[in-house]
Design goal:
The chain is of the alpha/beta class. The protein is about 35% helix and about 20% strand. Helix 3 packs parallel to helix 4 and helix 10 packs across helix 13.
């Protein structure tokens, strides 16, 4: 039986369909935007086709990489999913997996983020690729996300090597018609691990031999594989080389300015390794080569290093286009205008002028447990010279209560270093349950080992909410008290984000004490099902009494609940609760100093 169809889907979905089409048996992931939807869609599609796919909802990218490799060692096709910063965490095992090679195809989807639209940084992880010596595909379109994932599986099994597919944020959520095909193919063998010490035990001389084999593989791929697209005038003296989304922008600019006769355009779909023969052929007779690509100039650097003897003297790339942010249509268009002395193009028909759109940062949802938690922290530390260590995740959203926002586990990691050298400032660290199990628990053990005076708050909402709502260990019965006791922490304090007054008092009482103390703040994500809130949503509703409210704005400014509106003294009322947004968590009622919020029962 064969299923064929054209579906209007986004790039995350296209990769998911390709995974099912390729008969992927294992999906290991620690996702994050912009690839947080791939695993979700695979789960939906597999049920439609009754396909047996196993999922490893990993606690970090290091664990995910090893799990995916284990499946591939047994001949099962595996898919590993993470965002660009996660590649830092997975780098250690991925270096070794290059030495061992794989049996079943292993494809690694990495969501990249030029412009840092959904990340704390825009690090260019292309530089890991020559370190791993894995082939790298970069799709230009949603259709290519599907096609290149399948190509990656085929290439992976042909050369017994993991293959990377980079998916930038700008493409990840694009929608387009995609042609897909799924065959009911039973020809793949049953997974089985064949022991082979020469492959899997990498130490001493054997590690050197396997490294040499890896380099031979990547050299062969570079010599034999040619995945590229070439357009316009092959006899033009000016050659343009692109990759990824820069190709789409460049092609649009070339055609808008009618430069089809002036340039020869080459897009590299297989970005690593470089096919030297292809570059030599393309650059022959050219007076200038122009590289147009986001971020640091990975292709430009490769071509200069690998093919310098074939290149013309004049090379333009990162000397013109910035290494930061995303390359825009306007940047490429302005470059072509100057380069070819072009007049301004007046487009036919109505055009929409470019507008400067202000950045719109996210914030906590109505009823988010982090709202009450940070209110309690603020009140407990009020008028103190205090430091709040911040971690990545939903707790890092505006209004940015924490004093830094870097990477996962930076809350407890940086805080304990500060705690060892600071004498006069109070410091607490924060982080979600996802970050805690990612590596925060190890940092906590380090604080215990070094006898550091530190208060750490674990915001346990039962899910890794910011990156796709995959389950955390606390989504199932989990005894955090026994877990923390076994670590040797000096104090374990349970608090509720919906009872901020109790939270404040308990936090104040711990501030003068010493040792490693952990506040376990339990409150489920409102988007993922919260029994406490669901039990109240349809039976009560709060209302602000304007006669009692003195507009202290504690609920509006300090708590910063998005369901509370500032009416600006409309009809003698400043503040009002929007019942369409209010989830009835009750925090505003508890903190109101004037008893101005009445809870009505339906």
């Amino acid at each position: 039986m064969t299923f064929k169809s054209t579906l209007h889907i986004n790039s995350n979905e296209a990769i998911a369909w390709a995974a099912i089409s390729a008969q992927t048996k294992m999906v290991a992931h620690y996702p994050g935007s912009p690839v947080n939807q791939v695993e979700q869609h695979i789960k939906k599609i597999k049920n439609r086709f009754n396909t047996d796919v196993k999922f490893n909802d990993s606690l970090n990218e290091h664990v995910a990489a090893l799990a995916a490799a284990g499946a591939s060692f047994c001949g099962a096709r595996s898919l590993l999913i993470m965002k660009h910063v996660g590649l830092n965490i997975a780098a250690d095992p991925l270096n070794y997996i290059g030495y061992t090679g794989v049996k079943g195809g292993m494809v690694i989807i990495v969501g990249t983020d030029p412009g840092a639209n959904s990340s704390t940084g825009e690090e260019d992880v292309h530089w890991y690729v020559p370190q791993f010596n894995f082939p790298l595909f970069e799709p230009n379109t949603v259709q290519e996300c599907y096609d290149f994932t399948l190509k990656a599986y085929a290439l992976s099994e042909k050369y017994e090597i993991p293959v990377l597919v980079f998916l930038p944020g700008r493409l990840a959520y694009n929608y387009a018609p995609v042609e897909i095909e799924i065959k009911n193919d039973q020809s793949r063998s049953i997974p089985y691990f064949q022991k082979d010490a020469s492959k899997y035990i990498n130490v001493g001389a054997q590690a050197v031999k396997n490294h040499q084999k890896l380099l031979q593989k990547i050299t062969e791929i570079g010599n034999q594989q040619n995945h590229s697209k070439r357009f316009y005038n092959s006899k033009a003296s000016i050659g343009v080389i692109t990759r990824g989304l820069s190709y789409s922008i460049t092609r649009e600019c070339v055609e808008t300015h009618q430069l089809e006769k002036e340039v020869d355009l080459l897009n590299l779909d297989l970005v690593y390794p470089i096919n030297k023969g292809l570059i030599k052929e393309f650059t022959a007779g050219k007076s200038e080569i122009i590289f147009i690509e986001d971020q640091d100039g990975f292709v430009e650097n490769q071509v200069k290093m690998e093919c310098f003897e074939h290149l013309p003297r004049k090379i333009t790339g990162k000397s013109i286009f910035p290494k930061h942010g995303e390359i825009s249509y306007e940047q490429v268009s302005d470059f072509f205008k100057k380069k070819f002395s072009l007049p301004n193009i007046i487009l036919q028909g109505e055009t929409i002028p470019a507008i400067d759109i202000p950045e719109r940062l996210g914030t906590f949802c109505e009823g988010c447990p982090h709202t009450g938690s940070f209110f309690a922290i603020d009140m407990a530390l009020k008028n103190m010279d205090a430091i709040i260590g911040g971690d990545i995740g939903c707790s890092s959203l505006p209004p940015f209560r924490a004093d830094w926002l870097l990477c996962m586990n930076s809350g407890i990691g940086i805080s304990q270093g500060m705690a060892q050298v600071l004498n006069k400032q109070t410091i607490i660290s924060t982080g979600g349950d996802g970050s805690f199990f990612h590596a925060g628990a190890l940092s906590l053990m380090n604080a215990v080992q070094n006898e550091i005076n530190l208060i750490h708050l674990v915001f346990d909402n039962g899910t890794i909410a910011m990156t796709g709502h995959q389950d955390s260990p606390t989504s199932k019965p989990f005894d955090h008290v026994r877990f923390l006791t076994a670590m040797g922490v000096d104090g374990i304090i349970d608090v509720s984000p919906y009872q901020p007054n109790d939270f404040i008092e308990k936090l104040k009482s711990e501030l003068p004490k010493t040792g490693v103390r952990v506040f376990w703040v339990k409150g489920a994500c409102v988007l993922n099902g919260n029994e406490f809130i669901e039990s109240r949503r349809n039976v009560i509703y709060p209302e602000i009494n304007p006669e009692k409210c003195d507009s202290c704005s504690l609920c509006y400014e300090e708590l910063a609940c998005p369901a509370i509106l500032n009416l600006g003294d409309h009809m003698n009322q400043n503040l009002k609760i929007d019942l369409n947004r209010c989830v009835r968590c009750g925090v505003c009622n508890e903190i109101c100093p004037n008893d101005a919020i009445t809870i009505h029962k339906v």
